[in-house]
Design a protein that fits this description.
337 residues; 40% helix; TIM Barrel; binds flavin mononucleotide; eight-stranded parallel barrel; alpha/beta
């Protein structure tokens, strides 16, 4: 892997690397193994397809969620604003990136604040599980309240941390920290990975710890081991493809927990969204596909997501599903074992 050193902040590094370098897994997200049976007699009108749903107490026009990307810098402020405007216009959920920077420097709160441009949007705050050791629960509660978020996404990223020169390598006691958090805050806590996947057994532990939803964020899209390898001295070449493909993580998690599950990680089109819903996910998330559009304008973000929506609705028509409940009852066949 090429190594690059830079003095810019880590957040700017991450954005720049994701915009300029090849940061995705070579292996697929797992959905390529599954196929719908085409229905030549759909008996469905495209215009009448209803994709609305509810997630974490809020209504969504579509079962979609832009997962946490950024915050803390001027460029991040623009990115968050453009994504939030598009999410508000489409009626889908939005997560800000890690709020660690604003915990360290409260004046950075404005780079995460999007509630004024997205008054009706389901917004989730974001913090790394490791920060639960550094900051008390009251600080975390205020961090969520201060940006007017509806809940908090806590990210688990052990593989990414191992790829960083300055990473956190002490991963004992994390579940207890999550348990303490969910016991004391009133807003819902979702736990997510960052593209390496959550297994069914881990999901069960999290559900028992009071977590209200899980984003499996599996392998197949952005690889954080790859991203951090571009800026780190650590030799992680043998881990570049590490992780549970999203479809496999989703299947395992929905078989083991009753709480709502989000599928994300390598979701790049509406057919994969439809497959994820048919496999039991409540909503479907993505990050990298909106990053470049978000550096341009909110209309560019909206356009990118509208293509995904068009593909989702087309897939629904082609399997004869008028709404998400019908899509959830649609069978997928496994192409090979
Ligand atoms: C530029 C960028 C920054 C990200 N920063 C965060 C973050 O701060 N917190 C977090 O939980 N996930 C973060 N993620 C991970 C995404 O939310 C998502 O879990 C992961 O990228 C897999 O989805 P994708 O393949 O659609 O990109 C980031 C992703 C990107 C592309």
């Amino acid at each position: 892997m090429p190594k690059q050193k830079t003095t810019k902040s880590r957040k700017d590094d991450h954005i720049r690397i994701c915009l300029e370098e090849d940061v995705e897994y070579m292996k697929g997200n797992g959905f390529e193994r599954y196929e719908f049976l085409h229905k030549a007699l759909p008996e469905v009108d495209f215009q009448a397809i209803d994709c609305s749903t509810r997630f974490l107490g809020k209504r969504l026009g579509y079962p979609l969620f832009v997962t946490g990307i950024t915050g803390g810098t001027e460029q991040a402020q623009k990115i968050n604003r453009n994504i939030a405007l598009a999410c508000e216009a489409l009626g889908i959920g939005f997560g800000v990136g890690s709020q660690r920077a604003m915990l360290e420097k409260p004046s950075l709160i404005k780079t995460y604040e999007v509630r004024h441009v997205a008054p009706n949007t389901l917004i989730l705050g974001n913090i790394g599980a490791m920060q639960l050791f550094e900051y008390d629960i009251e600080k975390i509660r205020l961090m969520v309240k201060n940006i007017g978020a509806d809940g908090l996404a806590v990210h688990l990223n052990p593989a990414q941390e191992m790829a960083q020169d300055e990473g956190d390598y002490a991963w004992s006691g994390v579940l207890q920290k999550i348990r303490n958090l969910t016991a004391l805050v009133k807003f819902p806590v979702l736990v997510k990975e960052v593209g390496t996947g959550i297994s069914g057994d881990v999901a069960r532990q999290l559900a028992l710890a009071g977590v209200k939803a899980i984003d499996v964020s599996g392998a197949g899209g952005t690889s954080w081991i790859k991203v951090d390898s571009y800026r780190s001295e650590r030799e992680m070449d043998n881990f570049l493809e590490w992780g549970i493909p999203t479809a496999e993580a989703l299947k395992d998690v929905v078989s083991k927990v009753k709480i709502p599950v989000m599928a994300s990680g390598g979701i790049r089109n509406g057919i994969d969204v439809a497959k994820a819903i048919a496999m039991g996910s409540a909503v479907v998330g993505f990050a990298l596909p909106v990053l470049k559009p978000a550096t341009k304008s909110w209309e560019a973000v909206k356009e990118r997501i509208e293509q995904i929506i068009f593909e989702l609705k087309t897939a629904m028509l082609l399997v004869g599903a008028k709404n998400l409940d019908q899509l959830r009852r649609t069978k997928l066949t496994e192409k090979y074992k």
